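Batch manifest, entry 17 of 40.
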Amino acid sequence: MSSEMICYSVAPYMYGLMMMAQTISVFMTVGVSVHRYIGVCHPYKSVEWLPKKRVTTFIICLVVFSILFNTTRFFEVHVSNVCYRININYYMPSLQPTELRLSDLYRNIFFGWAYTIVMYVVPFSLLIILNSLVLSAVRRSRRMHMVSQCGVENDEFSKKAERKERQTSIMLIAIVLLFISCNTLAFVCNIMENLDEVGPFYQNMVTFNNLLVMVNASCNICVYMLFSEKYRMLLRHYVFCDWSRQGEMLISSAVG
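Output type: structure tokens
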């Protein structure tokens, strides 16, 4: 079996894994927003509400949910007969939708309702609401900080901690805005598919949507690098493989 045929044979499985990863990514972004909302708006309860065990449980449940929710994705496409492609002058296997993917009942239930609600309505609503509250809290904190500067001089440590919290909140809001900007077109494509508007314009939209999804995945690291000194320290530590005692002390101080 040629390498091209092997690649196409695993494509249905890679498609399912890709959709699982997308689901995890969406709800991890929501989880981070919930974490930041509690940390900013309910700082004195964050330790009680967000212990390490609860966060770990959330991640495990999210992975399990993503697997179950996207199980049918593995049966949506299959490798059909080898076809001759005139544009590249080459024989290639062709990926085609299965009967399940073409079923009107499946499309109405999964794409029309389940996928739209789970992947767009719920996460987008939560992200907009939570980050609006966080942004409002950050603005109030900034105003209070400006007022406090007019009075007694604040402790340097308190000012540094407040500045760090504010910067972290702004960083996560930037990540969420990037996420919403790059995934809104996917929502539009989903609506167009549900309405059977799958002409040439839709095909072009899907191509552009795939590009935006890759941009979103690629740019998060830039946002972290821009706003987070801790992230830059950890990145330097791992990139340069600084496993010395000094490097271990650096990573311990960054994580702590």
